[in-house]
Amino acid sequence: PQQMLQRCFERMGGIGRFIEPGDRVVLKPNIGFATPPGLGATTNPEVVAVVARLCLAQGAEEVLVVDNPIHDPARCFAISGIEAAARAAGARVMLPRPGAFRDVEAPDNAVLKRWPFFYAPFERATKVIGIPTAKHHSLSGVTLGMKNWYGLLGGRRNRLHQDIHTSVADLATMVRPTLIVLDATRVLFRHGPTGGSPSDVRFDGVVALATDPVALDAYGASLVAPGGGDFPFLDEAERRGLGTTDIWSAGFEMISL
C-alpha cells in the first residue's frame, strides 16, 4: 500500500495538490462491522495508516479517523485493526457519542432531505478523504466510495434500504470529499456486506485514487463484479452531474509497480 499510494499521488500531481500544512483532515474508512481485516468487510488498516502518515508528513495539523459503525463502535475500531493502525500512524480516532450528531438538511434530495449526521469531526475539518473498501452488497450490488458515507449517518438508517440506490446518490450530493482512496487490496466479492469466510475474499492488490466519486465507483464495481451488474445508483449519480461512469474519459490510468 505504501508504494502504491505514493505512485498514485505522484501521477496525480503529488499529495500537496490535496493536503496543505495546517490542514485538519478527516479520514472515513469503512469500519462498519466487528470483523478482522482478512474477511474484507472493513478497510485494510494498512491503507488507512499510509494515508494518515502521508497527510501528516505533508504538514497536516491533525488527522482524524471516524466512522459510525453498525456494530459496537469500540469493538469495530479495535477488531478491524484500524484503531491501532491509525494511532501508530499518528492519527486520532473519534468514536460516535451522544451530542456528536446534528441534523443536516438537503431539501433537493429525494430521500435524504433531513437526517442526523455525525457532524462533530467536521466542525473544524478542512479536508475530507474517503477510504472505502471494495465489496459486494446484497441490496445495492456493491458498496464503494459513495455508499461509504452511510457510516456518517445516525438514526434508523436501515429505513434508507427501501430505496437504496436513490439514498446513495443523495449521500453523494451531501458529502463532497477532497479525495477518495479505494482499498481493493482485497475484495469481498460475495456475501457482502459482512462476508464471514476467507473464501469470499479475493486478493487483488489494488488501490485507486479519484476526485470523481462516480468514476471511482464505476471502476470499483468492475472489480467486485467483473462480469457486470446493474447498479442504478451510478446512473442516478451521473444524471445529477456528480461524475461520469466512463472512467477513461475521466482520465483513469492504470499503474503497475
Question: What would your notes on this structure say?
Answer:
The chain has 257 residues and is of the alpha/beta class. Helices cover 26% and strands 21% of the residues. It has helices at 2-11, 45-57, 73-79, 82-88, 164-174, 213-224, 232-239, and strands spanning 24-29, 62-66, 92-94, 101-105, 114-118, 127-131, 133-137, 141-143, 179-188, 201-202, 206-210. Helix 2 (45-57) links the parallel strand 1 (24-29) and strand 2. The longest helix is centred in the first third of the chain and has 13 residues, at 45-57.
Largest sheet: 9 strands, mixed
Spatial shape: globular
- How far the N terminus sits from the C terminus, by CA atoms, comes to 11 Å
DSSP strand count? 11
List SSEs in N-to-C order.
HEHEHHEEEEEEHEEEHH
List the helices and strands and how they pair.
Layout: H1 2-11, E1 24-29, H2 45-57, E2 62-66, H3 73-79, H4 82-88, E3 92-94, E4 101-105, E5 114-118, E6 127-131, E7 133-137, E8 141-143, H5 164-174, E9 179-188, E10 201-202, E11 206-210, H6 213-224, H7 232-239
Parallel strand pairs: 1-2, 1-6, 2-3, 6-9, 7-9
Antiparallel strand pairs: 4-5, 7-8, 9-10, 9-11
Helix pairs in contact: 2-4, 5-7
